[in-house]
Amino acid sequence: MLPAYKCVYDLCLHIYNVTDKMPRKLKYDLGTRIRGYATDLAENMHVMTTNVKLLSTENKIAEYAATAHKLRIDIRLLKDLDAIEPKSWGHINVQIEDFLNLLRAEFLTSTRSKKATHSQSSETLPPNNTPASI
């Protein structure tokens, strides 16, 4: 999870720098919402990296992916309104995609480990002791 946290933290820093330079009419509405999404992702990933056992990993990963997609939509809106440079938009999109790829990898790892744990527990069950049919 640490690479995903680092990725989303870097994304958060970049978004704060970009939204700071936005036109005033967008900064306090769309900019605030975008900063909120980015900050939520960074905070939630930090909690997830420090308290993995306390959270349902698969549900949280889906929640974070949904937030990342909301962020992507708002960033696209900023680009279409010419509030951010196309280069910044491209950079942010790459960062969001990297984060989503790390989340997908974490989801696959989580799913595999859950299946392995489930199959190990079923292997330890005692054999069926029903009498053979005559």
Summarize it:
This protein is mainly alpha-helical and 134 residues long.
Write the layout of secondary structure elements.
Elements: H1 2-20, H2 24-50, H3 57-80, H4 86-123
Helix pairs in contact: 1-2, 1-4, 2-3, 3-4
CATH topology assignment:
de novo design (two linked rop proteins)
Shape: elongated
Task: Look at the structure and name the CATH superfamily.
Answer: 23S rRNA-intervening sequence
Largest sheet: none
Mean of pLDDT: 80
Number of separate structural domains: 1
CA radius of gyration = 21 Å
Q: What's the SSE pattern?
A: HHHH
Q: Can you offer a commentary on this structure?
A:
This protein is mainly alpha-helical and 134 residues long. It has one domain (2-115): de novo design (two linked rop proteins), CATH 1.20.1440. It is built from 4 helices and no strands. The chain has helices at residues 2-20, 24-50, 57-80, 86-123. It starts with a helix and ends in an 11-residue tail after the last helix.
Can you give keywords for this protein?
134 residues, mainly alpha, de novo design (two linked rop proteins), elongated, disordered C terminus
